[in-house]
Amino acid sequence: MKSANRFLLKLSGEALGSQGIDPRALASLTTQIARVQSLDIELALVVGGGNFIRGAQVREFDRVVADQMGMLATVLNGMALRQSLESTGISVLLQSAIPVAYAQPVDPISARQALAEKKIVIFAGGTGNPFVTTDTAAAIRASEIGAKILLKATDVPGVYSADPKKDPNAKLYKELTFDEAIEKRLNVMDLTALTICRENKITIRVFDVFRKGNLEKALRGEHVGTIVRP
User: Fold this and answer.
1) Cα dihedral angle (76, 102, 121, 201), rounded to 10 degrees?
2) What are φ and ψ of residue 198, in 5° steps?
């Protein structure tokens, strides 16, 4: 069953730093999350590992090995984020799709219970499988916990008709349907993630997490970024 106040926030590894973990970026993100704890929401996170390694972009290793390294990187980010949030007094549950001694295995039932108790749940390890993006992992986890909205945190204001860093005439969309996003091949999330969200009636909001106050606006349902509706 979906909960109207349950959100899943998908963070790229770059939200924690460009190369490794930047203490300032981590502190800024922690401050944003701590600020929204007073809202009547339940918040889960899926964190990427791109600040350490992106498996699909590493040519020196076998793709399976590279993706495994990327999944381990997400665990490092999850551990850092957990400690940073706990230092502010926030209760956190860290679950991992790959077996590690420092996190619980992914368990949707215990995750939903923790969310109901107003703990933040961090999902690391992707899906535990190579060749699968953290976008897809986020869509799966959002479906498993019954989140109504998946927030994709980026470094751009929303979804554009083209890459705004390369095309100054790129159009920013305020609202899209899943069919429009798929037909236009827009950079919302990968096709598998979009399909999972569409089938499970999960709304996606893409927004710039680096702009002060945007996370709170997104969680309040205010007009920020691009919304993709079922």
Assistant:
1) 80
2) -65, -45
Instruction: Please list, in sequence order, all residues whose beta carbon lies within 8 angstroms of the beta carbon of residue 167, skipping any fewer than 6 positions away.
Output: 160
User: pLDDT truncated to tens, each residue of the chain (230 aa)?
Assistant: 666 699 999 999 999 998 899 999 999 999 999 999 889 999 999 999 988 987 666 677 888 988 999 999 999 999 999 999 999 999 999 999 999 999 999 999 999 999 999 999 999 999 999 999 999 999 999 999 999 999 999 988 999 998 888 898 999 999 999 999 999 889 889 999 999 999 999 999 999 998 989 999 999 989 999 999 98
Backbone CA torsion sign across 35, 39, 42, 46? negative
Does the pTM exceed 0.90?
Answer: yes
Sequence-distant (6+) residues with CB within 8 A of 116 are 42
The secondary element (H helix, E strand) that includes residue 63 is helix 63-86
- Give me the numbers of helices (H) and strands (E) for the chain, helices first please: 7, 11
- Whole-angstrom Cα Rg for the chain: 16
Domains along the chain?
A: 3-229 (3.40.1160.10)
DSSP β-bridge partners for residue 229 = 177
